[in-house]
Amino acid sequence: MDTRQAYNLWSQQYDANDNKTRDLEAVAFRAALEHVSFDTSLEIGCGTGKNTRWLLTRSKRLVAVDLSEGMLAVARRELASKHVTFVQADIRSEWSFAAGRFDLVTFSLVLEHIEDLDHVFKQAAGKVKRGGHVYIGELHPFKQYTGTKARFDTEEGPQTVPCFNHNISDFTGAATRNGFAIADVNEHFDDDDRTSVPRILTLVLRRL
Asked: What Å distances lie between residue 104 and 58, 205, 207, CA to CA?
């Protein structure tokens, strides 16, 4: 089962499932962007809209993108607004799905499913205004090392979404090679227990 098929199937239960990674990333997302100024935003991996709702409180124009038609159907149903345009697209191809440049581009739990980070950062660089920002929120590599992956249960048994392991230096290296400065790196822990393995890694980049 490929990533698109998996998320289409998962969309039927995604919001109802207990999911520590989804929920902590939403908290990390808001914390990382609380003091970032933006009017226009491009959200990559909007899913069912867990972060879209917050972006709508700050954005005059928002383009929300996902690979999964199933996830987008839920988001459209829950978040009808004249300020958001929902788009189905595969970010592994050229980014022709959103015109113009944005103050902010966000990736939430997306890049673990992407093998070629350089392609994605190159495309993102072409969509961010100079001085604008990129947010990345991912399952922490330390969690990946222990075998944690995006997975969900079905009547046919557990389903695991295809994933690639990326080290922190893979993210920072791809970012700097493609015209970004690292503005912030942070780690987020279950129950804020910093003696445990961090669950979420966040990075905020600034376009040079």
From this structure: 11, 10, 10
Specify the residue for token string 């996902």. Answer: 66
Q: What is the pLDDT of residues 46-90, one digit of tens each?
A: 999 999 999 999 999 999 999 999 999 999 999 989 999 999 999
C-beta separation of 72 from 66 below 8 A: yes
Answer for the pair 181, 205: CB distance below 8 angstroms, yes or no: yes
Q: Which domains does the chain have, with CATH numbers?
A: 3-139+163-202 (3.40.50.150)
Contact 183, 196 (CB under 8 A): no
Distances in Å between the Cα of 46 and the Cα atoms of 64, 66, 91, 158, 208 are 6, 6, 13, 23, 25
- The strand pair at 157-160 and 102-108 is best described as unpaired
State CA 150 to chain mean position distance. Answer: 13
Q: Predicted confidence band at 1 (pLDDT cuts at 50, 70, 90)?
A: confident
- Read off the pTM: 0.96
For the chain, give the number of residues: 208
79-86: list long-range contacts, CB under 8 Å, 24+ apart: 79/49, 79/52, 79/53, 81/56, 83/56, 83/59, 84/52, 84/56, 84/59, 86/46
Within the chain, what is the greatest distance between any pair of CA atoms?
49
Q: Which of 152, 136, 145, 110 is nearest to 188 (CA)?
A: 136
